[in-house]
Amino acid sequence: MHSGRTCRGGRFTLSDIKLTVDGEAVVVPAGSTVLDATRKLGRSVPTLCHDDRVDPMGSCRMCLVEIEGQRRLQPGCAFKASDGMVVSTSSDRVQQHRQLLLSMYMSDHAIDADGLPTERGVGNRLRSHVLEHGHGPTLPAIEAPRGYRDEPNPYIHFDAEACVLCNLCVRYCDEVEAVSAITLAGRGAGTTIATADQQGLLDSSCELCGGCIAVCPTGAMTEKPSRANDYREAEKVRTTCNFCGVGCQLDLHVQDDRVVRVTSPDPGTTVNDGNLCIKGRFSYEFIHHDERIMQPLVRGRDGNLWPATWDHALDVAAKGLLGVKARHGADALGFVSSSRCTGEENYLMQKLSRAAFGTNNCHQCAAT
Amino acid sequence: MTNSIPEIRDAELLFVIGSNTTEAHPIIAMEMKRAVKNGAKLIVADPRAIWLSNIADLHLQLQPGTDVALLNAMAHVIITEGLVDQAFVQQHTVGFDTIVDATRETTPEWAEGITGVPADDIRTAARLYATTKHAGIYYTLGITEHTHGTDNVYSLANLVLMTGHLGVRSAGMNPLRGQNNVQGANDAGASPVFYPGYQRVDDPAAQARFEGAWGVDLSPDPGMNLNVMMKAMATGDIKGMYVMGEDIVLSEPNASKVEQGLNSIEFLVVQDIFHNETTRFADVVLPAACFAEKDGVFTNSDRRVQRVRKAVEPPGEARADWEILCDLARRVGYPMPEYADPGEVYSEMAGLCDKFAGISHDRINAEGGLQWPCPAPEHPGTQYLHGDGPLKGKAEFQATAYRPSEELPDEDYPLLLSTGRTLYHYNAATQTRRSSGAMARQPRNFIEMHRRDAKIRGLEDGELVRVRSRRGEVLAAVNVSPRMKRGCVWMPLHFPDSNTNRLTNDAGDPTTQTAEYKVCAVVIEKLRAAAK
Lengths: 368, 532
Ligand code: SF4
Ligand code: SF4
Hints:
The complex is a heterodimer. By secondary structure, chain A is an alpha+beta fold. Chain A has helices at residues 34-40, 92-107, 125-133, 168-176, 211-215, 278-282, 310-328, 343-357; strands at residues 17-21, 24-28, 64-67, 74-75, 86-88, 156-158, 182-185, 192-195, 221-223, 235-240, 249-255, 258-263, 297-299, 305-307, 333-337, 362-364. Chain A is built from 8 helices and 16 strands. In chain A, the strands form 6 sheets. A 5-stranded mixed β-sheet of chain A has the order 2-1-5-3-4, sandwiched between helices. In chain B, helix 4 (67-80) runs antiparallel to helix 7 (108-115), helix 4 (67-80) runs parallel beside helix 10 and helix 7 crosses helix 8. The longest helix of chain B has 14 residues, at 67-80. At the A-B interface, strand 10, strand 11, helix 6, strand 13 and helix 7 of A face helix 2, helix 9, helix 11, helix 13 and strand 9 of B. Bound molecules: iron/sulfur cluster (2 copies).
């Protein structure tokens, strides 16, 4: 069950829990994990395999903390907080563990010229953890036989070299999207992520939601069309998806006046809880498509549509509509508004119909 | 929606009817999957074995167009087994007796004969729904796109009222809006009978309010809705049209008739971002900006008003729809104010509608989306409606009776066609047809059918066939699918070169005039090897 969840509907609350983290007291709702408590205090406990939307797995060992009375370090994401617990997130023992662990991850990860885990345009948490916590001795690089053939799906690129096998993409696909299109495959150092039956993604149950990309902490899963774009150079503009009526919030990444990538705001912050479907995440090619109408057009005597200036096109439109009104009355005009347009535009369309032309023949294009 | 999307995960029971949620509303479906994982019961009523039916406790696979029979049988069970929430009915409703009368004979056995759903499953569904507190109904076009769409909605509302599933968290009556801003367009008065904020045009007080604000005399006569306008073009009652952001040829039923109408009117203005089937008929085409190129708000299914923000410039000379509309109004002599930005337009509307009076761009920018009703700037917005009883006085039960759909299969047209949307494409698909993923998955029109229906006609999976109705014909690839019932076929609405709406029936619901996209009769013809 999802951590931090108190009870059905939040209608009754079990008693809260008091504990101490790094010497500071904190109160959390029953059912919370140690990680929840550290986050409530704003402690930065590193994680790789954790996401609030899936069951904790505790496999990456990044979030180990010291808990009084426990002989071993414990994973904060899976360990339940309890009354009176005393937790340390930055003791020497914890720091030592982190640095050694990061060394081990680095030995199995592409390293750049600065000796840091390679950045892949979308951020790499392994890299930021190393920058924040340092690393231990450099270990010999592991030569892993991870074959991965590029495949024809248009959106999802997988780079096995950057994969830390946190399994988050698989768990997301399983537990949140619930289609189980991908899985851990192979064994030992050759373990990797693949489709369930080794087919291409397009032949699997994958719905191309891109959730696996969004949860991947290291940039092993990335979006093919935007691989060349560095996320740090883009300006993000928060907006609302223009497809279905769920109203998912989107961040459009803008570079050189083009939308180059779309992501969801963080989980827990908007109605879509960090999730998007194929349309919201990937169907943005149309924005800069060269078939967009770029000029006003007016039908000529020859029966064809010809480019015109705005001034001329608006003039023809106004005269044409006024002409119909003069000949047949205002109620011989119809105004079709659009559920694809904004609220303000719908308001203006009905105002145009009612106030400027005098008819209530105005309707939007969808009944539900 | 009476309730909110984030409440779904805490529901104890979900009754999903006429909604292929995983494809039409994927992120709402995720919340449903999460609820089921948390132990909620799921009842799916749908003619097709849609994805959600795989994880459902109960799948009521009814014959298309027989929803009223199913729902009235459920009401019959709830009433006869004493499962009615008497206190709620007494306190908050009127007209319960009419339902008792109307459902006296609608036994599950009677409904089984019409719907094909086993009587015992109807009983189980009714009991589960009536006896679970946090039980919500979710529906979409599968309920409304029928000649008896209004009756379908009333029948659902009757179930909600008699069981008191209103004003409760994770319950209620929840239409999922098909398009991003259907809710917002309705809210803003893009309706022949309502000014913004659901104020009737034939209510003199509302008329006076808007006349005062807009400085002109207004017509008290309700206008034509879209389906009526489409027919009125052909009969000569409509002579000029202004169409913004909609491909009426592809999206409206009985496409050939729409085309005839467009050919016969005197003047047509189309404002859109791509050429489409409708721009072919236009006298003037005005290039518009897409959502990423303008500011404003969209209102989603749970009444949440959220910002749309300009991220990039429109291409070429394209302009935002709001600017074009203002310019055109001034050209025809109406003094539209010089709005500095859409935020000022929103303020004008909010000032005329109590429901949105507390909402502004500034507030949304600071606080995030706001759910109406939100009557004042300090009001937090409303997560679920009717928290203290239905809004206005008492809710009225509306008795309904099962009527067959307008056009049912017969000897000449033996198959029942339903239409709808898929995950990968979106409506007229002017946007998704330009997406590589959607095209990789679904490049062309198809017709889903049962294995046996394909076999008796000698059809292979993937074979191209001609599908014909009384109104037109299209070509589509056979898709043999375990989702279908025998005798029923299904087609998507997204492909202009094979426009499924050449087949559909434009017969409308008597109240809303919403057309019957979900039921019509067709015949499938094998193409001769020689023919193309
Ligand atoms: S895109 Fe979505 S469905 Fe496909 S593998 Fe990734 S998470 Fe699973
Ligand atoms: S991302 Fe998908 S589910 Fe969300 S609003 Fe857009 S189309 Fe709907």
